Amino acid sequence: MDEEFKRYLLSWSRYILETKVGGEKKKFEFQNVFELPFSQKYAGFVTLRESTGSLRGCIGNTSAIYSLKDLISKMTVATATQDTRFTKVQAKEIFKLIIEISILDCPKPLATLDDLTIGRDGIIVEKENARGLLLPQVAVELNLNKMEFFKATLRKAGLSPLRETWNSVSTFYFSAIHFQEQKKFD
Hints:
Radius of gyration: 17 Å
Structural class: alpha+beta
Number of domains: 2
CATH superfamily of the largest domain: Hypothetical protein ph0010, domain 1
Shape: globular
Distance between the termini: 31 Å
Number of helices: 5
CATH class of the largest domain: Alpha Beta
CATH topology of the largest domain: Glycoprotein, Type 4 Pilin
Largest sheet: 7 strands, antiparallel
Number of strands: 7
Strand content: 25-35%
C-alpha cells in the first residue's frame, strides 16, 4: 500500500467524518480512487485522536467482510458515534481530530509470545463472552514489552492478568498497516 493510496484512504475517512457526522455538504475530491480493486474484503480499525494525542474513539472489525471503502466508511462513523467510552463526536470538534487507519491481516493463533513482534503485531484474547484487542501501535505508544502487552490485552477484555488465566484464554495475533493524518493545529 503506497503513500498516495494511504492519503486517499485518510481523505475518504475525513470526508465521511465531515459529511456523515458533521453534516457538511461537499464532494469527495478523489473520485477515481475507488476504481481501484476495492472488491477485496478487509478488516480494520479507524481511530480518532484529539490534537493532544488523547484517544477520542476507536472501533473496527477483525473479520474481512467489507470492501475497503465500506470498511472505512462504517468504522469512521461508528468510531465517532458509537464508541461507548466517549460521548459522540460533535461537528465543532471534527476539525481538531486526527484520523488513524489500521488495515489488519487475518488473525492467527498465538502459540507463544516469542511469535509476537512489538510494533508489527496486535493481540486478541477471548474467553467465553470476554474479548480484548489491542492494535500493534498501542505497545509502542505505551512502551510495553511482550508480556506487558499481553497482560494489557487481558485487562482490556476484563480478564485477570494473573498467570492462572493465561492457559484458559484463546489468544491470536495479527499484523496491521497503520497510518494517520499529519495535521497541524493553530
